[in-house]
Amino acid sequence: MKTLSTRLLLFMLTAISKLSWKKLYKLSDIFRFLIFDIGHYRKQVIFSNLKNSFPTYSDDTIACIARRYYRNFTDIVFETIKLRSISKNDLLGRFELETELLDHYYAQQKNVVVVSGHLGNWEMLNLFASAKLSYQIVVVYHELANEIFEDWFKKVRTKFGTEMVPMKEAMVRAMAPREKPFLFVLVNDQSPSPDKAYWTSFLNQDTGIFRGGELIAKRLNAPVLYMGILRDEQKRGHYRSYFKLITENPKKEPTNNILQSQIEYLEEDIKRQPDNWLWSHRRWKHARPQNLLPFQLRQEIKSE
Fold it and tell me: Rounded to an integer, what distance in angstroms lies between the CA atom of residue 25 and that of residue 30?
């Protein structure tokens, strides 16, 4: 019965993906009203995250950001459904991408590690990058528990050639040979295991950061770029993305320096467009462990 209901839902999603953008955004507005205005989906999480991140903002300002976030969230949901049937030309017209840094490294046939956060529609950018760039796009992701859903979304994510890598295989797959230079992309601003995280201050809160991006960058010794994604506030469903160089020589960087640079760039983008980030995620569900040893020291003890 679960399999049948899942397949029926995916049939409906595929049908929805064929609607015009105008009709799609009408559905997004209805969905926003139902889950946020009526259902109050994760309202406490969203407001708590916003208030803790912007302690000087008034209640009215926080409420305004939350309302704009609600539309951002449901738009991303329906835009992602649309990717199932989107044409290449339609997709290419919805993003502006600054490619100067990428062009520079591709000319040298260099692989690049890209770190980012859940800004704008990161799923659409993944598809856009594989349709637009000469690089092989390799994206680290969390597999879905439901195999039928996983297969449906994986077909969406890979329709223009993206290689999807489960997080548990990230290090091994990062070292695999490929026919052309690749971008190894990690959207790594979710909540990691607290005892394995790098801990720092992010949006006025004690925050754990996944270490994988830095470890992979050091192993590859490939240039590391931060990727920002900004929503076009004048044109619904349009975005602009850009890159900032973090380092060209990861092996020479002090431990955690890459992670700290990424989180500072991400914080700048969130402050620039506060409704453009994933506020409904329980980002700060873990506290910093007491008596946590510095990462390098823990590694030395472990190796003895």
Answer: 9
Give the C-alpha separation, 142 to 150, whole Å: 10
The pTM of this model reads 0.92
* Phi, psi of 268, deg, nearest 5: -60, -45
Q: 115, 90, 122: which is closest to 276 by C-alpha? A: 122
Q: Can you tell me the distance from the alpha carbon of 164 to that of 143, in angstroms, rounded to the nearest whole number?
A: 9
**Burial track 106-131 (b if 16+ CB lie within 10 A, e otherwise):** beeebbbbbbbbbbbbbbbbbbbbbb
Q: How far is CA 17 from the centre of its chain?
A: 22
Rg (CA), the chain: 20
> Which residue stretches of the chain are H helix?
2-17, 21-32, 43-53, 59-82, 88-92, 100-107, 122-132, 147-157, 170-174, 212-220, 257-272, 295-303
Beta bridge partners of 230: 240
Contact 282, 191 (CB under 8 A): yes
Structure tokens at 277: 């980030």
Of 282, 270, 284, 285, the C-alpha closest to 72 is 270
- pLDDT (tens digit per residue) in 55-97: 999 999 999 999 999 999 999 999 999 999 999 999 999 999 9
**Beta strand 224-231 with 163-166: parallel, antiparallel or unpaired?**
unpaired
Structure tokens at 25: 């955004």
